[in-house]
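Narrative summary of target 7.
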Amino acid sequence: MILAFGLLGAGVAAVAAQPATRNWVATVATTSAGSYVIGSPAAKAKLVEYLSYTCAHCAHFVGEASTTLKRDYVSKGITSIEVRHAVRDPLDLAAALLARCDGAARFLGHSEAIFAKQGEWMSKGIEFHKANAERLQGMPQPKALAELARGSGLTALVQARGMAPAKAQACLASKPATDQLVAMSGEAWQQRKIPGTPAFLINGTIVAGAMDWAALKPQLDAAIK
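Modeled conformation, tokenized:
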């Protein structure tokens, strides 16, 4: 009995000594340009995704691919995802500012939640803008963005996820955050000249014609081999 107990104890100690598996999905770094990189810095396939929150194709891609990408690629440390914003309009800018408001750690959750509800807040936002276009045009940009976020339901969406109202308003009014997104979008549209959103790079090379998971997956798998 003593010998068996001793062997059992040694086995438990050996298991306890094994290093815990790294949760790469929860590992998020910020680049000098402000984009977020999710996953292992040593990942063999480095995927860059250019997205817009008012892009229906982007919402479709996130809905169909996010779970698989996180579970089968990012969590295993073989792929990282860098999210770059390609802002297209004021409503998109408001959504991006709110998605990034809580920083790198909460960005992915906010981003996916915004895409999941795109049909609701975007239609409300378009109607709100139509009804208030002249009034919004006469406002300073931070106030107009705050009004758009409120009228579309974006503010309520992030507040339901635990963001304090004052913090949401501060992010919508932040000139440094806005300037960073404008610069990031300039890189996408004017410098990189992406054809549209979503657009993808794998290890620095643009993936032509990939707007859904079916087209992107074979290219990603080839980069991992």
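The two ends are 50 Å apart (CA to CA).
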